[in-house]
Write a structure and sequence with these properties.
Number of helices: 18
Structural class: alpha/beta
CATH class of the largest domain: Alpha Beta
Number of domains: 2
CATH topology of the largest domain: Rossmann fold
Distance between the termini: 26 Å
CATH architecture of the largest domain: 3-Layer(aba) Sandwich
Order of helices and strands: HHEHHEHEHEHEHHEHHEHEEHEHEHEHHH
Radius of gyration: 22 Å
Strand order of the largest sheet: 3-2-1-4-5-6
Shape: globular
Length: about 425
């Protein structure tokens, strides 16, 4: 199967090039950096270089603590981070700590076309490579492994559905693909079991890197301004919502306003470009603040740290509809009491851990949402205790970035010589 994929990807190069141009028109690609998708743009500095590949925003921000740990342990190290989305390319430089500036380089990842991947590797010549979560591109992994570059799969995850599909239809392909990794650090015990059943070797004890991420940043002046506009009103934040959820949340909020007539609901859609379709209300993307009305639409990027700090309750989106949920850990780090729906499959370990620790509440459907939010508003002390429990649970993974950094650096010798398997 890997040979067929290699052949087909090469044949697909013209169509992929056409699709990249089409994505430029939709602001899904950066026209000034489109050549990077074909492996161009290398500017390798001297010395040791570790390549870290993260798919998008969540994964790229999750590896910030890892990069800090790597930098602290190896002052001569440069890190190359590749991602596949415009949003991640724009947000990552904003989130880099001062200590990492100049030591972290960003490029768009080459698509999984053999010639494009070869060009990328020829230019960058990484000493080791870490792929984050489920980024398993066959040609990229084969080419990297074939050059003797040690590979690590970090925060590795695989869903039940994907594992079952691979186990049934392509067990040999899965075993070969996973066998290219010298080191696999699974996100959870469940992920570890699925990966091991598919033939993965070199598994370490599980640990979720997203638990160790720093609190989302905030602009202090913007927070002061937003809190001033809100006044003393109670605030419900619907964070990272998806189509089909906003109407249910607004219906629940309408019920609550019978007892809390000043309630302000902030809708922060997962895809900010949907802001215009969410109703007639002030929109943050237009420079507007909340007015006396019941709704405010926060359709901007990179401001969840602001919104969680301004909220009394956060509903975690993607969980009332069968999307799999969004990251509940951001709210936990910022002391915002949270609630989510039944669909948290994408964050099963995190949501289960938070619930077991008493750090979150879960509803099974929209009908229970208003009653649960009313209880949380009625008992603020209990909600605050829940938020403290969530924060304590999240802090339990504080040593993980250091352990991950040491395992990754162990693949590279002190002068850039690759450790032999």
């Amino acid at each position: 199967m890997s040979g067929a994929w290699h052949h087909l990807a090469g044949l697909a190069a013209p169509a992929l090039r056409w699709n990249l141009r089409r994505r430029v028109a939709r602001d899904k690609e950066d026209p000034a950096r489109l050549a990077e998708r074909e492996g161009h743009g290398a500017a390798r500095p001297p010395g040791r270089l570790i390549w870290l590949h993260a798919a998008s925003v969540g994964e790229s921000l999750a590896i910030l603590p890892l990069m800090e740990a790597l930098a602290a342990r190896d002052p001569a190290l440069t890190m190359l981070v590749t991602t596949g989305t415009v949003t991640s390319a724009r947000l990552l430089p904003q989130r880099l700590p001062d200590a990492l500036r100049g030591r972290v380089l960003h490029r768009y990842a080459p698509l999984d076309v053999p010639a494009w991947v070869a060009r990328f590797l020829d230019g960058w010549r990484p000493d080791a490579a870490g792929f984050v979560e489920s980024e398993l591109w066959p040609n990229t992994l084969a080419a990297t492994h074939g050059r003797g570059i040690p590979l690590a799969l970090l925060n590795a995850r695989i869903s039940d559905r994907t594992a079952a599909r691979w186990g049934r239809w392509a067990p040999g392909f899965a075993r070969d693909l996973l066998g290219r990794f010298r080191l696999i650090m699974p996100r959870s015990a469940q992920d570890a079991a699925r990966l091991q059943a598919l033939g993965a070797q070199g598994l370490t004890p599980p640990g979720d890197l997203k638990l160790a991420a720093p609190p989302l940043p905030v602009d202090a002046a913007a927070l002061t301004e937003l809190r001033g506009a809100i006044g003393g009103r109670p605030v419900l934040l619907a964070a990272s919502t998806h189509p089909g959820e906003e109407a249910q949340i607004m219906a629940a909020a309408a019920e609550l306003r019978g007892s809390w007539p000043q309630l302000l609901t902030i809708l922060a859609p997962r895809h900010p470009e949907r802001g215009a379709e969410l109703g007639e209300a002030p929109r943050r993307s237009l420079g507007q603040g909340p007015d006396a009305g019941p709704l405010y639409i926060a359709d901007t990027m990179g401001e969840m740290g602001l919104l969680y700090r301004a909220a009394d309750i956060a509903f975690i989106g993607g969980s009332l509809v069968p999307h799999g949920g969004q990251n509940p850990l951001e709210a936990a780090r910022l002391g915002c009491p949270m609630i989510f729906g039944p669909h948290m499959e994408n964050f099963q370990e995190a949501s289960g851990g938070l619930l077991a620790a008493g750090g979150a509440r879960q509803v099974q459907d929209a009908a229970a949402l208003a009653a649960t939010m009313a209880d949380m508003l009625t008992h603020p002390d209990a909600s605050a205790a829940m938020a403290r429990a969530a924060g304590a649970w999240v802090s339990s993974a504080s040593d993980l970035p250091g352990r991950m950094a040491e395992a990754l650096l162990a693949l590279v010798g002190p002068d850039g010589a690759v450790e032999k398997a």
